[in-house]
Amino acid sequence: MAFPASLPFSGPSPKPHPNSNSNPKSLKSLDQKQIILLLQKSKHIKQLLSIHAQLIRNGLSQDPFLVFALLRSCSKCHAIGYASRIFHYTQKPNVYLYTALVDGFVSSGNYLDAIQLYSRMLNDSIAPDNYLMASILKACGSQLALREGREVHGRALKLGFISNRLVKLRIVELYGNSGELGDARQVFEEMPEDVVASTVMISSYSGQGLVEEAGAVFGGVRRKDTVCWTAMIDGFVRNGEMNRALEAFRRMQGENVRPNEVTIVCVLSACSQLGALEIGRWVHSYMRKYEIELNLFVGNALINMYSRCGSIDEAHKVFDEMKDRDVITYNTMISGLSMNGRSRQAIELFRVMIKLRLRPTNVTFVGALNACSHGGLVDFGFKIFDSMARDYRVEPQIEHYGCMVDLLGRVGRLDEAYDLIRTMKMPPDHVMLGTLLRACKMHKDLELGEHVVKVLEDRGEADSGTYVLLSQVYASFGKWKEAAQVRAKMKEAGMQKEPGCSSIEVNNEIHEFLLGDIRHPQKERIYKKLDELNRLIRLEGYRPEKEVVLQDIEDGEKEGALAIHSERLAICYGLISTEPGTTIRVMKNLRVCYDCHSVIKLIAKTTRRKIVVRDRNRFHHFENGACSCGDYW
Asked: 536: helix, coil or strand?
């Protein structure tokens, strides 16, 4: 492997400031140990530049001990480019100097440079030691340089370094990161019980979606530390096993293992996905109790958790309490405000971010444009969209165009939405066309709706959701024959509507419901409450929207099918299980149907409860017979 002759690894080397007062006193009066101590104490590149200049003037620039200390200090001060130039002018560097620079490259994420430097060292006939072997294996594992890693593994065997614990750990990590789990397992099983090696294997299995295998390794660890627990919790989260992640966290607490900030962020992520607000609040209080710092990493996760659990005021409180905020902080808060129906607040925060000269990203614009869409702010939405490339050099992507189609569709400007799709630089995806189809249903544009479906069919992207919407469009026009034909087409194609599932958190426990679910131990009380609510909402003028039911059944049966939708069962369970006045929070995997949306508005009115429902698209905050979405979602 060739190594470049010149070494401009990390851009131009830093220049000493002409007025710097960080110059140390003359090094002539100091011995080698004192100079090394001075280098180790240096905290800024300016100090190192001054010391290096004096080393050159005093003829000490080739002293291997001083060069070693200088390379280490440059890495510590994030000046790896300057370190590489020092190395380039060092005569006959030994293994320790190679190791110092390889370590510097690895710690700064320049893994390929580390691998190239290792290759040059071998070409110079310098034998590596076990410490350098471990460092270069880490570089190979991080770069996914499997071929080079296998060569290093072979050399470690040849030189007798394979018995070294750190070398073996890095080999397991190399194969695990590269997806070679059989090789990783073989090396792992050759090691004595080691919690760090087990943690590496847990992460490796989880990274490949093998949660059960990760769990088996985890179960075999007798003394699990914080990092091991965190790896298992993170594995569950990354593979969508949120309930198991929270259960693992409970067991971790039961064994009195203190979580770190990474654990906290993993658990908050699980709470966000499940809508487990009470557990999220408990984690937040745990942070306060044990004085876990509200840094960017944890603070951003808290804002996301509260936002995605529908408690946007608590999210904003965390935002206000944070001492430092970065672009991700603002993006998370803007998106949270947008999805919770606080469009104008989201836009105002976007303006604040711009005034602070924080450069907006793709994600920023998605949040801001969604806010405009949810708030019906057409003119301001176009201003933001037009400013992306013009003012910030952010080229609009498919998701930004999708926001604009949603915005135009919301206010009934369907022709403009379709024109925007036709004039885009990229082809529309099925999500964007689905958005336009929903707008056609809302604004009763049958002709355009049929055209959109044909486009989806021609592209092979029509799914069950496409035909469900088209069937509902026909039904809204009273075209029952056409609606039936669409349903027949779905049946012939073997398509089935994705089953709805709703969940609610009560007393720190997640309860899930399906359509017509009778598995819950409180089913009799749930259905009794459902009958009671059905009577009350009829007195308020409720009339079922039977066209949302796709089955070919009688009207009475359709009404019964609507009444047992999963979100209604979850709400009923919330009403019988919580104190009067408590907010009911429900998560649903699909969009809320139009009939349920009307029903929940009336339930919120008759029970005098605030009901928050998070569906696939956004949050609905129901209160006093109204919804935050303005009846468009």
From this structure: helix
